[in-house]
Automatic annotation (TrEMBL):
Keyword DNA-binding in annotation: no
Keyword presence, Cell inner membrane: no
UniProt record similarity statement: Belongs to the cytochrome P450 family.
Protein's organism: Streptomyces durmitorensis
Annotated segments matching region Disordered: 1-24
PROSITE patterns, alphabetized: CYTOCHROME_P450
Keywords: Heme, Iron, Metal-binding, Monooxygenase, Oxidoreductase, Plasmid
Name of the featured protein: Cytochrome P450
């Protein structure tokens, strides 16, 4: 009866997706409550439909690995806006299913193998060292985002892809419009258009004169159209610096706010590999989660997800599931965080994850080594966090040393 099951009644009532983090890292407390009560729960979408939210680690991997769930954004209801997204642009394979997804992704896998990325390590070290000297040249303190966390991944993806880094202000400012939690269609449309024009010019130049970079390899080694090349380049350019930049800044922020963990890593830099995995898990910067659309009715956790329903997999909730990671709320760099879904899971699992790991390992250890007195220059709760952006992080990280 209603009276004997009050908790179930509340649980069944779809609510908007929980997004507000507490000061400043922890995923929303509502997610934990949902996971315990109903790991596959209903959420109310702004377009009036009811979607689903996955908060459990095993279910998250199930959904992300199941071909009955599509990544095509035009099939989905957004948990954040009543507007439906356009189909992916040609080459934008993040939002495609096989066989289109397979075709594009295959053209890039050779460029991002573990072996190839290992060979890139020396270059990541050079870029990091140079950026650390520029940071030091700021005097007694600086914004770590502007002078370190953003330039390192940005320089690396520019170099790999063949985009001139001198143009970084142009594409970084456009990226802001695209990464807003809720896009303003006019602003993001203009940003896409400007970036496409810019990349078209680059593609044409590479057709005329190939160089030693991914764009040239794609131009010469495939039959992709200009539109497809632009779409792939845009995906790599955007995915390649926003995410890692926010992870570098947030990882530093988290370590500076956990002095015990910071000391552990300072005393034994060989812990960095595990520390990076734990930071990826703990911070789970893909803020809203990974959305999928059911292509057919799917039975999951004793419920039926109807064809056409949108399921959002909460990366943050899955990565804090105590059944997988033990008491998972605290940051513990000695924990085994293997199996986290910070890079997703299944066919769309992050293509750039090895590069991101290398940048984070070298970046964080370099920073701690070069700046033994590194500390926050403002109280923890005054750091401007990116709750307005799709990728969680900080807008600025004022530090001193
Ligand atoms: C896909 C996270 C860095 C390129 C993804 C996905 C996640 C993710 C969660 C899967 C999205 C989904 O399933 O819907 C991250 C994080 C990063 C990072 C947390 C940094 C710490 C990078 C870098 C690059 C990159 C450095 C490029 C060099 C891509 C691409 C995809 C992707 C191309 C689409 C893969 C596909 O659809 O097959 N990333 N990423 N990422 N990432 Fe990353």
């Amino acid at each position: 009866t209603r009276e004997s099951h009050p908790a179930r009644d509340t649980a069944d009532e779809p609510r908007p997706i929980p997004l507000t983090r507490s000061c400043p890292f922890a995923p929303p407390a509502e997610l934990t409550a949902l996971r315990e009560r109903e790991p596959l729960s209903r959420i109310a979408n702004p377009d009036g439909t009811t979607g689903w939210l996955v908060t459990d680690h095993a279910l998250a991997r199930k959904v992300l690995g199941d071909p009955r769930f599509s990544a095509r954004q035009e099939l989905m209801s957004s948990p954040l806006t009543a507007r439906r997204a356009e189909p992916a642009m040609p080459g934008g394979f993040l939002f495609m299913d096989p066989p289109q997804h397979t075709r594009y992704r295959k053209l890039l896998t050779g460029q991002f193998t573990v072996r190839r990325m290992r060979r890139l390590e020396a270059r990541v070290e050079e870029v990091t060292e140079r950026q650390l000297s520029l940071l030091r040249a700021q005097g007694k303190g600086a914004d770590l985002v502007e002078h370190f966390a953003l330039p390192v991944p940005s320089l690396m993806i520019c170099e790999l892809l063949g985009v001139p880094y001198e143009d970084h202000e142009f594409f970084q400012s456009r990226a802001v419009a695209i990464f807003r939690l809720v896009q303003d269609p006019e602003e993001s449309g203009a940003a896409y258009a400007a970036l496409r024009t810019y990349l078209l010019d680059l593609v044409r130049r590479r057709r005329g004169e190939p160089a030693d970079d991914i764009l040239s390899d794609l131009v010469t080694g495939s039959d992709l159209t200009d539109d497809e090349l632009i779409g792939m380049a845009l995906l790599l350019l955007l995915a390649g610096h926003e995410t890692t930049a926010n992870m570098l800044a947030m990882a530093t922020f988290a370590l500076l706010s956990h002095p015990g963990q910071l000391t552990l890593l300072r005393e034994d830099p060989s812990l960095i590999g595990g520390a990076v995995e734990e930071l990826l898990r703990y911070l789970s910067i893909m803020h809203v989660g990974l959305p999928r659309a059911a292509l057919e009715d799917v039975e999951l956790a004793d419920r039926v997800i109807a064809q056409g329903d949108t399921v959002t997999v909460s990366v943050a909730a899955a990565n804090h599931d105590p059944r997988k990671f033990g008491p998972a709320d605290g940051l513990d760099i000695t924990r085994s965080a293997t199996g986290h879904v910070a890079f997703g899971h299944g066919i769309h699992q992050c293509l750039g994850q090895q590069l991101a790991r290398i940048e984070m390992r070298i970046g964080i250890n370099g920073l701690l080594r070069e700046f033994p007195g590194l500390r926050l220059d403002v109280p923890v709760c005054e750091v401007p966090v990116r709750s307005d952006m799709g990728v969680f992080g900080v807008h600025r990280l004022p530090v001193t040393w």
